[in-house]
From TrEMBL:
Protein's name according to its UniProt entry: LysR substrate-binding domain-containing protein
Domain of life: Bacteria
Keywords recorded for this protein, A-Z: DNA-binding, Transcription, Transcription regulation
Entry similarity comment: Belongs to the LysR transcriptional regulatory family.
Molecular function via GO: DNA binding; DNA-binding transcription factor activity
LysR substrate-binding domain residues: 14-124
Species, as recorded: Eggerthella guodeyinii
SUPFAM superfamilies: Periplasmic binding protein-like II
UniProt-listed PANTHER family: HCA OPERON TRANSCRIPTIONAL ACTIVATOR HCAR (PTHR30346:SF0), TRANSCRIPTIONAL DUAL REGULATOR HCAR-RELATED (PTHR30346)
Gene3D superfamilies listed in its UniProt record: 3.40.190.290
InterPro entries xref list: LysR_subst-bd
Length: 207
């Protein structure tokens, strides 16, 4: 199985926890590795991976994509940003400060950008180096939209994360993805258990 995310602090530990939980559910040997969405999909099609765990839905005729949970939208900011004083970020904050999407989250960035632009937020999607992002956060008091999982805070050293206020936020789907018609019995057990409403695998692993 592949976890389709960019590298983050202690990602190897997260992969081991996901593998252990999946193994308990399926009673089969499970390994989990980190892979960007593009490499994950390629690995799925060539048989390297039996399944992908993604943040954001995959819409393609060659795969089956089943939502099994959701995580909130998070916002990275400098540690001295005015929004740090509150527990949650509001829509008005996104309209007040410059906003950037996170690289490596292609599966949901398009939905986030489309949704918030309709709400009057000007979001930039231009790739930046780590130094440019650091200046964006510190000098421009910028905000970077990402998955609201605290463990991913290590992606932007020196930054802190706050969640979007629920009424202003956008849930991000956690999905299990397989090649069309290639679901092994063990995978069906995993998919069925999670889709039946038990605690989402990724949400538990990232705590």
């Amino acid at each position: 199985m592949a976890l389709c995310l960019p590298p983050f602090y202690n990602f190897d530990q997260t992969c081991r926890r996901i593998a252990a939980m999946a193994q308990r559910i399926t009673n089969a040997s499970v390994t989990v590795s980190l892979a960007p969405s593009g490499k994950g999909l390629n690995g799925l099609h060539v048989g390297r991976f039996d399944a992908l765990l993604t943040l954001g839905a995959v819409s393609h005729p060659s795969v089956d994509c089943v939502p099994v949970g959701a995580v909130p939208l998070g916002v990275f900011m400098a540690k001295d940003h005015p929004c740090v004083a509150r527990d949650e970020v509001r829509l008005d904050d996104l309209k007040t400060y410059p906003v950037l999407t996170s690289e490596g989250f292609e599966l949901f960035n398009d939905v986030v950008v489309s949704t918030y632009r309709k709400r009057g937020v000007d979001i930039a999607c231009s790739p930046m180096t780590s130094q440019e992002i650091d200046r964006f956060l510190r000098e421009r008091l910028g905000l970077v939209l990402a998955v609201g999982i605290p463990a991913l805070g290590g992606m932007l050293p020196g930054a802190t994360m706050r969640l979007m206020r629920p009424e202003d936020g956008l849930p991000i789907a956690i999905c299990l993805v397989t090649a069309k018609g290639a679901k092994r019995p063990e995978y069906r057990a995993l998919e069925g258990t999670l889709a039946s409403g038990l605690k989402a695998l990724a949400g538990e692993a990232f705590e």
